[in-house]
Write a structure and sequence with these properties.
single chain, alpha+beta, SH3 type barrels, Nucleotidyltransferase, domain 5, 2 domains, 8 helices, about 30% helix, Retrovirus-related Pol polyprotein, RNaseH_sf
Length: about 300
């Protein structure tokens, strides 16, 4: 037992060993009550240079309705993104309450937070190194799949296909709501190009949006419960409390200049002390500079201090 205890509390061993235990908490899905509540935003790129020097796709998705807007932009700067959000998206689609992004430099600036606050929008961030918590990540994978289909022969043609990709995403039934994004926002079913080739019995293509929102909300909740149950089945999850010490995953890159390879770096850094446990699979630790940092529990593991004896 004493040998096991020494090995378990070995500082270097804990930093260099892969964590084979379940490194995440139970799956939690936060679903907005209606459209225009939360917008998830992300960037794709840099891509092959398109017309007018376009290099990036700015993706905005309404988390409730799954409605997507795609913008081709030259540079991924705070100013350019703010112009698209405040100067085009909100004027065309109406006010929003929250905007969810990763922790990229474009979104962590004071200008980003302040200008959105003036517009009545709260900024929310995904936890560090846990992009799965941003719903737009899944949409970006689908955008990538569609663009591979359309422009595999000429990669720089991606800009001209954005409108087509956006159209199909917004007029295709989404599995999690049971409706198309445009149906939820407008109450109308748009006629797709294929519909013109087939004569079907006439039907009412308009439904009160309030009814659709209610039905979509029930479907979203049901889908989330089923999805979370499948993910969590048979798993035991770690629990953390204030005062515990934890190690945090390292994400260092190889460097040919310094003769370093990422495989030989220690896997964890720390230890850090947990100062708050807000829930939603996150903890807040105090970093080296005594600043609070939010971490998803997927990126941490409990630290066992060396035995002083």
């Amino acid at each position: 037992n004493s040998v096991k205890k020494v090995i378990k509390s070995c500082d270097l061993c804990q930093r260099s060993k892969i964590n084979t235990q379940t490194a995440r908490g139970p799956t939690i899905s936060t679903i907005p009550d209606a459209p225009h509540h939360t917008i998830s935003l992300d960037l794709m790129g840099p891509l092959p240079r398109g017309p007018l020097g376009m290099r990036y796709i700015l993706t905005l998705i309404d988390v409730f309705s799954k409605h997507v807007r795609l913008y081709a932009i030259r540079r991924a700067t705070t100013d350019i993104i703010l112009r698209k959000v405040l100067g085009d998206y909100i004027p065309k689609h109406g006010p929003i309450q929250r905007i969810l992004t990763d922790n990229g430099t474009q979104f962590s600036s004071e200008k980003w937070t302040k200008q959105l606050q003036v517009a009545g929008v709260k900024t929310v961030f995904t936890t560090t190194y846990h992009p799965e918590s941003n719903p737009v990540e899944r949409t970006n994978r689908e955008i990538g799949r569609m663009l591979r289909t359309y422009c595999h022969h000429k990669h720089s043609s991606w800009v001209k296909w954005l409108e087509t990709v956006e159209y199909w995403l917004n007029n295709t039934t989404h599995h999690s709501t049971g409706f198309t994004p445009n149906q939820i926002l407008t109450g109308k079913t748009l006629q797709l190009p294929l519909d013109k080739l087939v004569t079907l019995p006439e039907k009412d293509d308009e439904t009160e949006t309030g009814v659709l929102i209610h039905l979509a909300q029930k479907k979203l909740q049901k889908s989330a419960i089923r999805r979370n149950h499948i993910k969590d089945q048979g798993k035991r999850f770690p629990t953390y409390v204030i005062g515990q010490q934890v190690l945090v995953k390292e994400h260092r890159l190889s460097s040919a200049i310094d003769g370093e390879i990422h495989k030989f770096f220690l896997l964890y850094r720390g230890p850090y002390t947990i100062i708050k446990v807000p829930g939603n699979n996150t903890v807040i630790i105090q970093d080296e500079n005594k600043k609070p940092v939010t971490q998803n529990i997927k990126n941490i593991k409990l630290y066992v201090p060396p035995d002083p004896g």
